Hints:
Two copies of one chain form a homodimer.
Chain A lengths: L2 E3 L2 H15 L3 H8 L3 H8 L7 H10 L2 E7 L13
The first copy, chain A, binds a DNA duplex (30 and 30 nucleotides) through helix 3.
GO molecular function (chains A, B): DNA binding
Pfam family, one (chains A, B): HTH_3
InterPro entries (chains A, B): Cro/C1-type_HTH, Lambda_DNA-bd_dom_sf
Amino acid sequence: MADLARTPRQIGTIIQRTRKKRGWTQSDLAARAGLRQATISTIETAETPAKLDTILAVLAALDLEFQIAPRSLGDNADIEDLF
Amino acid sequence: MADLARTPRQIGTIIQRTRKKRGWTQSDLAARAGLRQATISTIETAETPAKLDTILAVLAALDLEFQIAPRSLGDNADIEDLF
DNA sequence: TCGCGATATACACCACAGCGTATATTTACA
DNA sequence: TGTAAATATACGCTGTGGTGTATATCGCGA
Protein backbone atom coordinates (compact mmCIF):
# COMPACT_ATOMS: atom_id res chain seq x y z
CA MET A 1 0.00 0.00 0.00
CA ALA A 2 1.37 3.34 -1.06
CA ASP A 3 2.27 5.84 1.62
CA LEU A 4 1.15 9.40 1.24
CA ALA A 5 3.98 11.93 0.93
CA ARG A 6 2.94 15.56 0.84
CA THR A 7 5.79 17.08 2.82
CA PRO A 8 9.54 16.61 3.14
CA ARG A 9 8.92 15.41 6.68
CA GLN A 10 6.58 12.66 5.60
CA ILE A 11 9.04 11.61 2.93
CA GLY A 12 11.88 11.52 5.45
CA THR A 13 9.86 9.41 7.83
CA ILE A 14 9.00 6.88 5.16
CA ILE A 15 12.61 6.66 4.04
CA GLN A 16 13.82 6.12 7.60
CA ARG A 17 11.18 3.49 8.32
CA THR A 18 12.03 1.57 5.16
CA ARG A 19 15.76 1.80 5.78
CA LYS A 20 15.40 0.34 9.26
CA LYS A 21 13.12 -2.36 7.91
CA ARG A 22 15.95 -3.31 5.58
CA GLY A 23 18.33 -3.39 8.54
CA TRP A 24 20.58 -0.77 6.97
CA THR A 25 22.49 2.01 8.66
CA GLN A 26 22.46 5.53 7.27
CA SER A 27 25.95 4.84 5.94
CA ASP A 28 24.73 1.72 4.15
CA LEU A 29 21.95 3.62 2.46
CA ALA A 30 24.25 6.52 1.68
CA ALA A 31 26.72 4.23 -0.06
CA ARG A 32 24.00 2.59 -2.16
CA ALA A 33 22.54 5.96 -3.15
CA GLY A 34 25.88 7.61 -3.82
CA LEU A 35 25.46 10.10 -1.01
CA ARG A 36 26.96 10.88 2.40
CA GLN A 37 25.74 9.60 5.73
CA ALA A 38 25.18 13.20 6.79
CA THR A 39 22.91 13.78 3.82
CA ILE A 40 20.73 10.82 4.73
CA SER A 41 20.50 12.22 8.23
CA THR A 42 19.27 15.61 7.08
CA ILE A 43 16.77 14.01 4.74
CA GLU A 44 15.30 11.74 7.39
CA THR A 45 14.96 14.55 9.89
CA ALA A 46 13.74 16.84 7.09
CA GLU A 47 16.08 19.50 8.39
CA THR A 48 16.28 21.14 4.99
CA PRO A 49 14.23 20.35 1.90
CA ALA A 50 16.32 18.20 -0.40
CA LYS A 51 16.72 18.27 -4.16
CA LEU A 52 14.43 16.13 -6.22
CA ASP A 53 17.15 13.98 -7.73
CA THR A 54 18.65 13.31 -4.32
CA ILE A 55 15.34 11.97 -3.07
CA LEU A 56 14.90 9.91 -6.23
CA ALA A 57 18.33 8.37 -5.69
CA VAL A 58 17.48 7.42 -2.13
CA LEU A 59 14.14 5.95 -3.12
CA ALA A 60 15.78 3.91 -5.88
CA ALA A 61 18.36 2.61 -3.42
CA LEU A 62 15.51 1.47 -1.21
CA ASP A 63 13.68 -0.05 -4.18
CA LEU A 64 10.89 2.48 -3.73
CA GLU A 65 9.34 4.89 -6.16
CA PHE A 66 7.10 7.90 -6.34
CA GLN A 67 3.62 7.71 -7.69
CA ILE A 68 1.50 10.74 -8.45
CA ALA A 69 -2.19 10.64 -7.62
CA PRO A 70 -5.10 13.02 -7.07
CA ARG A 71 -5.09 14.47 -3.56
CA SER A 72 -8.62 14.92 -2.50
CA LEU A 73 -9.85 11.48 -3.26
CA GLY A 74 -7.94 9.51 -0.69
CA ASP A 75 -5.91 6.40 -1.30
CA ASN A 76 -8.43 4.34 -3.17
CA ALA A 77 -8.61 6.94 -5.88
CA ASP A 78 -9.18 4.94 -8.98
CA ILE A 79 -11.38 7.50 -10.58
CA GLU A 80 -10.59 7.62 -14.26
CA ASP A 81 -9.76 11.26 -14.48
CA LEU A 82 -10.40 14.47 -12.68
CA PHE A 83 -12.63 15.78 -15.47
CA MET B 1 -4.90 5.46 -10.85
CA ALA B 2 -1.51 6.62 -9.67
CA ASP B 3 1.11 7.47 -12.27
CA LEU B 4 4.60 6.17 -11.82
CA ALA B 5 7.25 8.87 -11.36
CA ARG B 6 10.84 7.64 -11.21
CA THR B 7 12.55 10.45 -13.06
CA PRO B 8 12.28 14.24 -13.29
CA ARG B 9 11.17 13.80 -16.88
CA GLN B 10 8.26 11.56 -15.94
CA ILE B 11 7.25 14.00 -13.23
CA GLY B 12 7.39 16.90 -15.65
CA THR B 13 5.25 15.06 -18.16
CA ILE B 14 2.59 14.24 -15.59
CA ILE B 15 2.51 17.82 -14.37
CA GLN B 16 2.13 19.14 -17.91
CA ARG B 17 -0.59 16.66 -18.77
CA THR B 18 -2.57 17.51 -15.65
CA ARG B 19 -2.16 21.24 -16.16
CA LYS B 20 -3.52 21.03 -19.70
CA LYS B 21 -6.37 18.85 -18.48
CA ARG B 22 -7.26 21.67 -16.11
CA GLY B 23 -7.12 24.11 -18.99
CA TRP B 24 -4.45 26.20 -17.29
CA THR B 25 -1.54 28.03 -18.84
CA GLN B 26 1.94 27.78 -17.34
CA SER B 27 1.35 31.28 -15.95
CA ASP B 28 -1.87 30.17 -14.28
CA LEU B 29 -0.13 27.25 -12.62
CA ALA B 30 2.84 29.38 -11.68
CA ALA B 31 0.60 31.92 -9.94
CA ARG B 32 -1.19 29.22 -7.95
CA ALA B 33 2.07 27.59 -6.93
CA GLY B 34 3.87 30.82 -6.10
CA LEU B 35 6.41 30.37 -8.86
CA ARG B 36 7.32 31.90 -12.21
CA GLN B 37 6.11 30.83 -15.60
CA ALA B 38 9.70 30.14 -16.58
CA THR B 39 10.11 27.76 -13.66
CA ILE B 40 7.08 25.75 -14.71
CA SER B 41 8.58 25.55 -18.17
CA THR B 42 11.88 24.13 -16.94
CA ILE B 43 10.07 21.64 -14.72
CA GLU B 44 7.82 20.37 -17.49
CA THR B 45 10.68 19.95 -19.92
CA ALA B 46 12.82 18.51 -17.11
CA GLU B 47 15.62 20.77 -18.24
CA THR B 48 17.16 20.74 -14.79
CA PRO B 49 16.12 18.64 -11.79
CA ALA B 50 14.06 20.83 -9.49
CA LYS B 51 14.04 21.14 -5.72
CA LEU B 52 11.74 18.89 -3.78
CA ASP B 53 9.65 21.66 -2.25
CA THR B 54 9.18 23.30 -5.64
CA ILE B 55 7.73 20.09 -7.03
CA LEU B 56 5.56 19.68 -3.95
CA ALA B 57 4.20 23.19 -4.42
CA VAL B 58 3.33 22.49 -8.04
CA LEU B 59 1.66 19.19 -7.18
CA ALA B 60 -0.38 20.86 -4.45
CA ALA B 61 -1.49 23.57 -6.87
CA LEU B 62 -2.69 20.83 -9.19
CA ASP B 63 -4.37 19.01 -6.32
CA LEU B 64 -1.98 16.11 -6.77
CA GLU B 65 0.29 14.37 -4.30
CA PHE B 66 3.18 11.97 -4.13
CA GLN B 67 2.76 8.48 -2.87
CA ILE B 68 5.66 6.17 -2.09
CA ALA B 69 5.39 2.53 -3.04
CA PRO B 70 7.64 -0.49 -3.61
CA ARG B 71 9.20 -0.42 -7.07
CA SER B 72 9.40 -3.96 -8.25
CA LEU B 73 5.85 -4.95 -7.55
CA GLY B 74 4.05 -2.83 -10.06
CA ASP B 75 1.01 -0.75 -9.41
CA ASN B 76 -1.17 -3.24 -7.63
CA ALA B 77 1.37 -3.64 -4.90
CA ASP B 78 -0.67 -4.28 -1.86
CA ILE B 79 1.80 -6.62 -0.28
CA GLU B 80 1.98 -5.99 3.41
CA ASP B 81 5.65 -5.21 3.67
CA LEU B 82 8.82 -5.74 1.77
CA PHE B 83 11.03 -5.66 4.75
C1' DT C 1 -0.96 34.70 -43.31
C1' DC C 2 -1.24 37.67 -39.75
C1' DG C 3 -1.17 38.53 -34.98
C1' DC C 4 -1.38 37.46 -30.26
C1' DG C 5 -1.32 34.38 -26.53
C1' DA C 6 1.61 30.62 -24.75
C1' DT C 7 5.99 28.73 -24.09
C1' DA C 8 11.00 28.63 -24.19
C1' DT C 9 15.53 31.25 -23.31
C1' DA C 10 18.79 34.71 -21.60
C1' DC C 11 21.57 37.04 -17.98
C1' DA C 12 23.03 38.58 -13.51
C1' DC C 13 22.15 37.53 -8.71
C1' DC C 14 21.15 35.06 -4.49
C1' DA C 15 20.01 31.16 -1.52
C1' DC C 16 21.11 26.87 -0.11
C1' DA C 17 21.71 21.70 -0.61
C1' DG C 18 25.30 18.50 -0.80
C1' DC C 19 30.33 17.84 -0.58
C1' DG C 20 34.80 16.73 2.16
C1' DT C 21 36.45 16.41 6.48
C1' DA C 22 35.80 16.07 11.12
C1' DT C 23 33.74 15.78 15.50
C1' DA C 24 29.88 15.77 19.01
C1' DT C 25 26.19 13.06 20.73
C1' DT C 26 23.16 9.50 21.09
C1' DT C 27 21.93 4.53 21.04
C1' DA C 28 22.52 -0.23 21.79
C1' DC C 29 24.69 -4.17 23.58
C1' DA C 30 28.27 -6.97 25.97
C1' DT D 1 28.41 0.80 33.08
C1' DG D 2 31.39 1.21 29.60
C1' DT D 3 32.37 1.32 24.91
C1' DA D 4 31.79 0.92 20.09
C1' DA D 5 28.56 1.68 16.54
C1' DA D 6 25.17 4.80 14.75
C1' DT D 7 23.45 9.28 14.18
C1' DA D 8 23.49 14.29 14.43
C1' DT D 9 26.33 18.74 13.74
C1' DA D 10 29.97 21.86 12.30
C1' DC D 11 32.55 24.70 8.77
C1' DG D 12 34.04 26.38 4.43
C1' DC D 13 33.26 25.59 -0.45
C1' DT D 14 30.92 24.78 -4.83
C1' DG D 15 27.16 23.86 -8.01
C1' DT D 16 22.97 25.08 -9.34
C1' DG D 17 17.90 25.99 -8.97
C1' DG D 18 14.76 29.81 -8.47
C1' DT D 19 14.12 34.92 -8.95
C1' DG D 20 13.42 39.43 -11.55
C1' DT D 21 13.37 41.29 -15.81
C1' DA D 22 13.17 40.74 -20.56
C1' DT D 23 13.00 38.82 -24.99
C1' DA D 24 12.73 35.26 -28.54
C1' DT D 25 10.11 31.67 -30.56
C1' DC D 26 6.30 28.75 -31.10
C1' DG D 27 1.39 27.62 -31.96
C1' DC D 28 -3.15 28.48 -33.03
C1' DG D 29 -7.31 30.87 -34.30
C1' DA D 30 -9.48 34.68 -37.09
